Inverse folding.
């Protein structure tokens, strides 16, 4: 299974989604813009998007909640060990965790750990847990050779159109 994502303006991404009705998209927003995400076996529709192999797939994503994506650059030499460590992650059965995806890039070296939480409060509880500290140790990697390879975290809310907000 593959995962696909691309960034853009909310209006632009909504138009793409409207033209591909057979695909379940997750439209996410934050203060910097919007991101469209979907999972399919082989149907790539984004011309400038990113493609990932889903290495670990737990839970079912839903059209509401809080998404956290950790982007982690991993050198070619470290990929096998890194993948093994993450496949045995410490997020299993965390209260409030809706879904978890471990994504390997088709091109490049930037892995993504995507977690969907029922609320920001649930994610904050996870961040204050002992299991979070252990997970951070697992995620720690060699110091990057240059600043472009520094891991970073991006958070989004699943976008709700006006129609969905009222129901």
């Amino acid at each position: 299974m593959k995962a696909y994502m691309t960034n853009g303006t909310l209006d632009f991404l909504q138009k793409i989604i409207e033209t591909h009705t057979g695909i379940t998209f997750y439209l996410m927003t934050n203060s910097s813009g919007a991101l469209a995400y979907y999972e399919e076996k082989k149907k790539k529709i984004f011309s400038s998007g990113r493609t990932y192999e889903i290495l670990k797939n737990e839970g079912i994503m839903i059209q509401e909640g809080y998404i956290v994506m950790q982007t982690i650059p991993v050198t070619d030499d470290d990929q096998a060990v890194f993948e093994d460590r993450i496949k045995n992650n410490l997020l299993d059965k965390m209260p409030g965790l809706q879904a978890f995806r471990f994504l390997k890039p088709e091109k490049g070296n930037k892995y993504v750990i995507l977690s969907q939480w029922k609320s920001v409060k649930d994610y904050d509880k996870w961040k204050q847990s002992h299991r979070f500290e252990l997970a951070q140790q697992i995620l720690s990697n060699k110091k990057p050779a240059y600043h472009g390879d520094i891991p970073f975290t991006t958070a989004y809310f699943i976008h709700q159109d006006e129609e969905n907000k009222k129901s």
Observations:
- Residues 2-166 form a domain with the Alpha-Beta Plaits fold (CATH 3.30.70.100).
- The chain has five helices and eight strands.
